[in-house]
Each structure stands twice: as structure tokens, then as C-alpha cells.
Amino acid sequence: MTQGPMFTIQVPASTANLGPGFDSIGLALGKYLLVDVYEDTAWRCEAKSPMLAGIPADESNLIFQTALEVAYEYNKALPHCRLEIESDIPLTRGLGSSASAIVAGIELADVLCGLQLTMQEKLEIACSMEGHIDNAGASLFGGLIIGIYNGQTASYVQQPIDELEVVAIIPEYELKTSDARNALPAELSYAEAIQGSGISNLLVAAILKKDWQLAGEAMTRDLFHEPYRARLVPELQALRQLPAHPDLYGYALSGAGPTVLCFVRKGAGKQVEEELQRLFPDCSVEALPIVNEGSKVIFHSPAHLES
Predict the structure, then answer these.
(1) Cα–Cα distance measured from residue 261 to residue 297, given in angstroms and rounded to the nearest whole number
(2) What CATH fold (topology level) applies to the domain 7-160+292-304?
(3) What would the mean pLDDT of 35-51 be, rounded to a whole number?
(4) Is the pLDDT of residue 219 over 60?
(5) 209 CB-side CA count, 13 A
(6) CA angle at residue 261 from 166 to 177, to 5 degrees?
(7) Which residues contact 68 (CB under 8 A, 6 or more apart)?
(8) N or C, which terminus of the chain has less Cβ within 10 Å?
(9) Is there a common fold for 7-160+292-304 and 164-288?
(10) How far are the Cα atoms of 20, 24, 106, 109, 125 from residue 117, in angstroms, in the given order?
(11) Tell me, what's the pLDDT at 51?
């Protein structure tokens, strides 16, 4: 008789940057990576969602790789197990699929090795693997996260967001993060850096004040990455040509792209989704909720409740 999973790991998707908050602002979104964890005699991974077809089925899978690295750092041996993975987070589309897998791997090691990691420790492990705080922080904590990672420690502010919806324009084509990074300049002038940081400060202040019109304006004024990546994402360029919309506050590349996120008035998501689907018929357009709960572990076996 096949036994059920010992526990399930649930990790939300995320978006990063929100325009000028480059590598420092993230937001959790209502798409999920779900990992059912079973006892086994080897490390095995089975993809249950079509979009995950082709991912590694052994310990070279990113979730296992992360868990093995965490276990090693804490001088523990990761027990063999089988993972059944479902996800509706598109891969290489700028919605944090790799960050969600890293967070899932940290949670996996934490439970199976009995590490009892704090949220701060989980965050700093994730940041060390990702290189920055935005996607991983949002997936761990939920809601909006604003922070920095200096290579050793992470500092952050987490804020629930309840008065905003997001509509994602998801192109069919992929955009590798490496290609998007290569489009960036090696340096900015002093004047550009001051202006760019000022716009980022304005974005954060407007969000925390819930001034969505001002936040939307700040999102579209980024100087750090969107001017250089726009040529790679025609959907972003097309949005810039549209007239003002009463329910659409602003838009920004989701992470490195190519997904573009539109930030809309609460309650208007479905209507804006329908309008944008007509304008972008070759893309998947989807209203997504912002979620204020981050990753969690759901236990199914009483024997593992103490872990």
C-alpha cells in the first residue's frame, strides 16, 4: 500500500523590482510551487505539472541541490526521499520559479534534518544562493519585502498589501536571466545613480503610504534596468504607447522579464485582464492576487510533527 506524503511544502511565486526597486523589492503572488515529500530509499523527483516536464528527476534537481547544500553546511545528512512536484509558476518568465525552488529546498532540509532554522536564517541562506533578497524574501515572508543583502546578512521590512491587484502579461517566449543581465550597463553616472535611487525611495514611500497613483508613476520611471531591457520585451514597449487607464496605476517588468506586471485598482483585475488580453492576443494575460502568506510546511504524518 502506497503511503501518503510525510509533509507538503507550499511556496508562492514572486515578482521583483517593481520598476526602480532593483534587486531590493519583491512581492509575493498567488501562483504556487507544491512539493509533496515521501519516504524513499533514494533521492527521486517526479514532476506532476506539464510545465515542469524535463526537470531533473534525481538529486541534481534544484530543490534537492539546495537541500543537500543546506544539510552539508549544518553537518547533517539529508535523508533519502521522493518529491512529487506541482507548479503553476511559469519557468524563466520572471515570476520567481528558481527562488521558489530554493525556498522549497531550504524548507526540505530544515524539516528532514531537524535544523529548526529561524526565518532570518532561512532568508540569509536563500539570499546567499540567489544573490539578492527580492524574490526569495517575498516567497519566504509573503506580501511586500524591501531589503538588502550584503553578502553575509540581510535586513528587510515586510509589509502586507491588501488594496492592489496585479495583472500579468506573460509572453510565450523565454528570457534567460543571464541575457537580461548582459543587457545592463557596467556602471551608471553619479547623477543617474542619485536620480535612480530617488525614484526608488519615492516608490517605497508611496507604497507604504498607499498612494497608488504616485507608486505607479514611480514604477514607470526606473533608470536602473528597464531602459536597457525594454528592447528585449516588446510588450513593455507597447504598454508605454497606451493612453492612461483609470484602473491601471502602473506597470513594470517582473524581475528580469519577459513577464510585465500591471498594478491595478482592487476589484478591477478581471476587467483589466480582459482588456489586455485583447491587446496582447499572443500572450497569456492573467489577474493574480497578491498573497501575504509566505512559504509553509503542511504536515501529514504525526511522526514528523516534532521536526
Answers:
(1) 28
(2) Ribosomal Protein S5; domain 2 (3.30.230)
(3) 92
(4) yes
(5) 12
(6) 135
(7) 59, 78, 109
(8) N
(9) no
(10) 32, 23, 9, 10, 10
(11) 80
For residue 50, what pLDDT band results from cuts at 50, 70 and 90? confident
Cα gap 296→135, rounded to integer Å: 16
Give residue limits of the domains in the chain: 7-160+292-304, 164-288
* Model pLDDT for residues 227-244, shown as the tens digit of each residue: 999 999 999 999 989 998
Beta strands 7-17 and 21-39 are antiparallel
User: Residues of 188-207 as b/e, b for ≥16 C-beta within 10 angstroms?
Assistant: eeeeeeeebeebbebbbebb
Q: Which among 141, 31, 40 is positioned nearest to 83, based on CA atoms?
A: 40
Report how far residue 303's alpha carbon sits from residue 307's, in angstroms, rounded to the nearest whole number.
9
Output the CA angle 47-141-225, nearest 5 degrees. Answer: 85
Question: pLDDT by residue (tens digit) across 94-122?
Answer: 899 999 999 999 999 999 999 999 999 99
Residue carrying the nine cell digits 534596468: 225
**Which residues carry a binding-site annotation?**
90-100
Task: Tell me the pTM.
Answer: 0.93
1 against 81, higher pLDDT: 81
Q: Which residues are annotated as a binding site for ATP?
A: 90-100
> Residue 206: is its pLDDT beyond 50?
yes
Residue 220: DSSP 8-state: T
Distance (Å, whole) CA 80 – CA 103: 19
Domain 164-288 sits in CATH at 3.30.70.890
The length of the chain in residues reads 307
